[in-house]
Amino acid sequence: MQGEGYRQPTIRSILGGCLLALLVLLPIVFISNTVKLVGAAFVFLPSRLGLLPSAAETEARSLDMSTSPNSLELPSAGPYLVYTDHFELLDITLRLEQSSATPWLRISDPATGAAVPMDYVGRGLMPYDPLFAPGRPVFRFVASRPGNFTAEHMTRDARIVIVPDYTTGREMEILLAAVLQILAVVLVVGAVARGRARERARRIEALLAPGRVSPKDLQRRYAGSEEKAPPR
Predict the structure, then answer these.
(1) Residue 73: its pLDDT value, please?
(2) Which of 114, 137, 139, 196 falls 20 to 30 Å from 60 in CA-CA distance?
């Protein structure tokens, strides 16, 4: 038996609840992209001003792991990070790192056959990781030259993305840039708010100038009229 205070939920309330649950769950399900989007917002101005170098999507290289070996063309010499969001690959990488085993990815120079030293990346996902690179970095290597290399790995139905590393060793610079951007935004918003408040005060004074009634007097009179008003 339904209680006297029970009200049948409307279609609008049901749809509103579903939409709210979806809005709450989406950032959790796509936590990687959520963290990166938040991080991109915090370093947007420094990156656009050229104060913080960031990898461009055109510099990234994607490898299909369904076949091995693969040809890998690197655009420049320097350090690179290998990103993946594949759960099995992340788990295997963690187990290999804990046992100090050889990484499952081998990149070599096809001319000499010499392998490029590959290091594990101990950190997890960070807000400054590029949005176009899925997941988090698992390996880091340094290419001595641009050009073609050979990538050998286990085969999986997955893709990895290799991105130039402009962040390792510059973590404090990134943090400082984010703090400075936050301060700049707070100062700008505060200045705009104070300007609007002063403009509003000037308009009120202009309206009340003939009667020489200050805004404070008007406030007191309004409060007094509210107190004297009979209850409804």
Answers:
(1) 92
(2) 114
Mean pLDDT by 10 residues, the chain (232 residues): 63 72 59 66 70 82 90 92 92 92 92 90 83 89 92 90 88 77 82 83 68 61 58 56
- Compute, in degrees rounded to 10, the torsion defined by CA atoms 198, 204, 206, 209: -130
How many angstroms separate the CA atoms of 213 and 127, rounded? 54
CA angle 137, 162, 93 (to 5 degrees): 40
The widest CA-to-CA distance across the chain, in whole angstroms, is: 95
Token pair of 219, please? 């406030």
CA distance 222 to 218: 6
Statement: the pTM of the whole predicted model exceeds 0.70: no
Helix (H, G, I), strand (E, B) or coil at 120: strand
The 10 Å Cβ neighbour count of residue 31 is 11
> Do the Cβ atoms of 124 and 136 come closer than 8 Å?
yes
Reduced to 3 states, what is the DSSP secondary structure of residue 24?
Answer: helix
Q: Residue 179 burial (CB < 10 Å; 0-12/13-18/19+)? A: exposed
Peptide bond into 69 cis (omega under 30): yes
Contact between 77 and 145 (Cβ < 8 Å): yes
